Amino acid sequence: MDFTIPADIQAKLDALDAFIEKEIKPLENENDNIRFFDHRREHSRTDWDNDGQPNAEWEELLREMRRRADKAGHLRYALPKEVGGDGGSNLGMAIIREHLAKKGLGLHNDLQNESSIVGNFPFVHMLMGFASKEHKEQFLEPTITGKARVAFGLTEPAHGSDATWMETNAVRQGDDWIINGEKMWNTGLHHATHDMIYARTSGKPGDAKGITCFFVPTNSPGFKVEKFMWTFNMPTDHAHVTLRDVKVPHSSIFGEEGLGLQVAQTFLHENRIRQAASGVGVGQYCINESVEYANNRIVFGKPISANQAIQWPLAELQTECEMVRWLVRKTAWELDRHNHMEVSDAVSMCNYRGNRLACNAADQAMQTHGGMGYSRHKPFEHIYRHHRRYRITEGSEEIQIRKVAGYLFGFQGPKKQARLKAAE
Questions:
Q1: Which residues of the chain have pLDDT under 70?
Q2: CB 212 within 8 A of CB 219
Q3: Measured between alpha carbons, how far is 265 from 394 in angstroms, rounded to an integer?
Q4: Which domains does the chain have, with CATH numbers?
Q5: C-alpha angle 120/269/197, rounded to 5°?
Q6: What is the pTM of this model?
């Protein structure tokens, strides 16, 4: 077994480091752009008088970062060659995401917005797998370049993980569909021209089939953003939406009628493994910063790193970080080689442990740094507030653990048929 980083991935890391120093760091420090990353960050990023939505200057800075990254050939690394990408592997993306997150806060990799010099494009993969020719022409390249924005409307006020019980419905009338319902945490709606709305078109509550995805123009009569939900980490682009007799043509269906959840689950494993890798990277950043601080902070005439009360929690975290790092890389490597469902449980292990690691490391970094760690003059409170979200979204910890247990006991996955046969 060889645990060294493959030469092509290491070359990419070196190129990314050089690009950050040459292009991104100067931009980050230009015209007081650093206000989006220092102690003023949340205030600078948020338009408090516009329902807490992202500040226009902040979003323009992110767009400029992505333009430069695309021009340099980094942004599309993980996308297929047919859309200008490098066809980067899951292993490559896991190593890159960890590497960038380990650098700490910065314009190179601001995960609050899923903005990075190496892009993560789940919607592009959805389009490539399920969209009609017309929808690809309408959304594919504009989505990559940021000229188009499509929001994602699956979760409802009363339904999150239990999406098959959603109450939003669509009824066909001739060549049109009439949609009624509500969506919650409808991300990306502050700039979106279209929203991917999932609605039941057939079947009964609890059925996986019978849910259809529609591209709904956000200026449609009856489509209303009730409010943007303020969150632990601001700004917000998470809307509460109501749909009252919204009419869309049959051609607005994304994918196949009744099979919308297949669209929603596209790229699920890749997205989760990349989140886990970012958790490892940011966890290592918090550990590294804490160790350096502890070695230099003198209390009662000696560095606090001499105290076991400081040493042991960080030693525990470093051990956890090493274990999760190698589980993430092994699982990413297997994703490149096997059917995704064969390693779905491992992806869930990576995801919930990586997200938990990030939160625990940020919390310990605050404790190690004392009062300064609690202040906004250090990045740990921001890291905690952001990564705490991932223990709920993209499948909560409980859902991830449920998946692991399902594979372990044969309620799901490869052992299921053997379990059912044994029960006969």
A1: none
A2: no
A3: 10
A4: 7-120 (1.10.540), 150-259 (2.40.110.10), 268-415 (1.20.140.10)
A5: 70
A6: 0.94
